[in-house]
Amino acid sequence: MSYLLAALLTSLSFAILNNLNGIISRKTSALAFSLWANIFGVILFMPLVLLVSDFDISDNLGYIGLSALLAVCVNLGFLAFITAMRKGSITVTGVIGGSYPAVATLIGLFAFSNDVDTPELLAIILILAATTLSALNTKPRLFIRNLGTSGAIYAFAALLLWGVFYGLIETVVEPLGWFFPVYLAYVVGLVLFSVIAIARGETKIFKPPTNKWLILIAAVLSVTGSSMYTLAVTSGPTAVVAPIAGSSPALFVVIAYFLFKEKLLKIQWFGIIFTVFGIICLAIVRS
User: Of 80, 85, 202, 258, which sees the most CB atoms within 10 A?
Assistant: First the structure.
């Protein structure tokens, strides 16, 4: 499969997924959603990881350890993302979180010594500046004070954590294969969220939620998107794959506009439009 096609499938999967995440986040706590998404991911895709994984564990312990650390990043990013959706705007959260290509591209450029030219740098700056505008749901002087209550700080945390994961995942894909790092992320997430739930005394979340079928669909879309991404970086550079895969906010915003009908300030729509524009520009110049 062409890495460009795999990157586009990643974008489509994540656009649909993030709208579904918005629906689920209104009915299920962030921790319960995160836990059960990982439970379904581990169960459903165990046969596939056994089928496609072919490497010597003893010779790749360092890469497995790095993959586990990246798994913590992507899972904490998801927890922050759903928390942001519950606290604030689904549309704004989806756009900010979906802007991870800007961070992933920067990491890919520095980590893998890819060249960057002026149009790419300008597109990245535009994305990061525009995501900040999209989070301005109040007067600028009150923005910092309201970051936590608006959920924006969690959305930016997801942006950074996902940027780290998708920027560095290429490092472990070559020795471990395209699917094992994705599956390991679900195993690590299951352990991580179980420990958090027990530590908080929130053992009730181990009971299947009422919207478990929606979470099951979300898990399938998540695994599909992440797998297509890791498959893409096996044959294409991260600095090209990340922007194309991350163009999902364009479709996400269109669906979210009709699905959630959220009332946002003009400056937020301005930020959303230019964030999407910046991501598309980055995808074009990198392809």
Answer: 85
Contacts 24+ apart (CB under 8 A), 201-206: 202/31, 205/29, 205/31, 205/32, 205/35, 205/36, 206/35
- Contact present, 144 and 95 (Cβ < 8 Å): no
H or E element at residue 283:
helix 266-286
> 52 Cβ partners below 8 Å, 6+ apart?
177, 178, 179, 180
Would you mind telling me the total number of residues written for the chain in this entry?
Answer: 287
Q: Does the pLDDT of residue 117 top 80, yes or no?
A: no
Whole-number CA gyration radius for the chain: 18
* Angle of CA points 170, 83, 10, to nearest 5°: 35
**pLDDT given for residue 4 in this prediction:** 79
- Three-state DSSP state, 195: helix
**Domain limits at 211?**
3-286
pLDDT of residue 239: 67
- pLDDT tens-digit readout, 28-56: 999 999 999 999 999 988 887 777 666 66
Q: What's the structural domain count of the chain?
A: 1
Is it the case that residue 274 has pLDDT exceeding 70?
yes
Residue 260: pLDDT over 60: yes
On whether the CB atoms of residues 236 and 178 are closer than 8 A, the answer is: no
